[in-house]
Specification:
With 216 residues, the protein is an alpha+beta fold. The chain has a single domain, classed as Class II aldolase/adducin N-terminal domain (L-fuculose-1-phosphate Aldolase, 3-Layer(aba) Sandwich), CATH 3.40.225. It is 42% helix and 16% strand. The protein has eight helices and eight strands. The chain has an eight-stranded mixed β-sheet, with helices on both faces. The two termini are 15 Å apart.
Length: 216
């Protein structure tokens, strides 16, 4: 089993165990030189065997093997094509993030980890999934975004490693959850831009962020 397949399999299980997807929802991919490996269409992420991850050539979109790649293949390809720094792409349907964003609200910075680790979150109004329209919209903002929240749909995160992309997904969902809870009991206090910038400049946070970029 290659290192890339090992990472994909590991985080496919983590995504399901964390409750970030249900059933056959969600998809993930990793760059492997001029190719990428992506989850096959219609599979429960915990049930994908080592030889069932679908190999795709990034520049042409040529698919190898008999299995059909995730229906969100175009979106993943745009991420890898637009930003050579991206090695991992994760798309899930985290409940609180979908709920908050579908109400027309952004997911605010409420606790230190989120602004310290995630540099930019972009938001897309609803676009029908699996289409060129959605892939193009993602491509327009992916060059400088760690997280893309798609209203009424889900969340996409990217990273130098799948560990980084997964952590961004967890932080986004946790912040949406905290915001939902806080909103039920009062008016949440959102961290100011200066407070967020101060957090990003902490040496301890820079060190933690650097660890996420290292291969497992």
């Amino acid at each position: 089993m290659s290192a890339v397949i090992g990472e994909l399999k590991k985080y496919a299980h983590k995504i399901v165990d964390a409750g970030l997807v249900v059933g056959a929802g969600g998809n993930l991919s990793m760059r492997d030189g001029e190719y990428m490996y992506i989850s096959p269409s219609g599979f429960d992420l915990k049930e994908i065997e080592d030889d069932q991850w679908v190999k795709v050539k990034i520049d042409t979109g040529e698919v190898f093997g008999d299995l059909k790649p995730s229906s969100e293949l175009l979106m993943h390809l745009e991420c890898f094509r637009r930003n050579p720094e991206i090695n991992a792409v994760l798309h899930a349907h985290p409940s609180y993030s979908v709920g908050v964003s579908s109400a027309g609200k952004d997911i605010p910075m409420l606790f230190p980890d989120f602004p310290a680790m995630v540099k930019k979150v972009s938001y897309l109004d609803y676009i029908i999934p699996t289409t060129n329209l959605l892939a193009d919209a993602v491509g327009e903002v992916i060059h400088d975004s760690d997280v893309i929240v798609m209203r009424n749909h889900g969340v996409l995160t990217v990273g130098k490693t799948m560990k980084e992309a997964f952590f961004y997904m967890q932080l986004t969902e946790e912040s949406a959850k905290v915001f939902t809870i806080a909103s039920t009991v009062g008016t949440p206090r959102i961290l100011t831009e200066q407070e967020c910038e101060d957090l990003r400049n902490l040496s301890s946070e820079k060190y933690r962020a650097s660890l996420l970029k290292k291969k497992s």
